[in-house]
Amino acid sequence: MKRPGIREYVLLVLLALMWGSSFTFIKIGVHAYSPLVVACGRLSFAALVLWCFALIRKSEMPKGRRAWVSTFMIALIGNAIPFFLISFGETKVDAGLAAILMSTVPLTTVVLAHFFTHDEKLSSGKVVGVILGTIGVIVLVGPETLSGLGGEFLFQLAILVAAIGYAISSLVARNLRDQPRIGSTAVILTFAALMLMPFTMLIDKPWTMDWDLEGALSIMYLGMFPTGIAMFLILQIIAVAGASFLVFNNYLVPAVGVVISFIILGEVPQPNALIALAIILGGIAASQMRFGRKSAHLEVATAKADPMAPVMETPADNKIPEK
Question: Which residue ranges make up each domain of the chain?
Answer without folding.
Answer: 6-318
